Amino acid sequence: MFALFETAILFMALFRILSGSIEIFAALLMLKFNEVEKALIINSSLAFVGPLILLTTTAIGIAGMSSKISISKFFWIFLGATLIIYGIKKG
Fold first, then answer.
1. What secondary structure does DSSP assign to 5-74, as a single string?
2. ∠ CA 11-14-15, rounded to 5°
3. Is residue 12 classed exposed, middle or buried when 0-12, 13-18 and 19+ CB atoms within 10 A define those classes?
4. What are the pLDDT digits (tens) for 55-81?
5. Contact, 51 vs 85, CB < 8 A?
6. pTM of structure
7. For the chain, what is the mean pLDDT?
8. What is the mean pLDDT of residues 13-42?
């Protein structure tokens, strides 16, 4: 089954599955602790996971496309990902 997928796509999807699993685990921890303070700490720690997964999946996608796009396109993709992270952190 996995032979049907391009390697970059497979790894991007696996990182997104990992990210979703971490989010579900965090929600379960919030329910387990049942305290607003601990829930905020758990929620704040997720702020590190989202951008990390975004950058990782973007890097994998760019690596998968490396033979198909020009250097100037790499620049615009990198700039776009950087602006997304900047917007998340400054928002």
1. S-HHHHHHHHHHHHHHHHHHHHHHHHHHH--HHHHHHHHHHHHHHHHHHHHHHHHHHHHHHTTTS-HHHH
2. 90
3. buried
4. 899 889 888 888 888 888 888 888 888
5. yes
6. 0.73
7. 88
8. 96
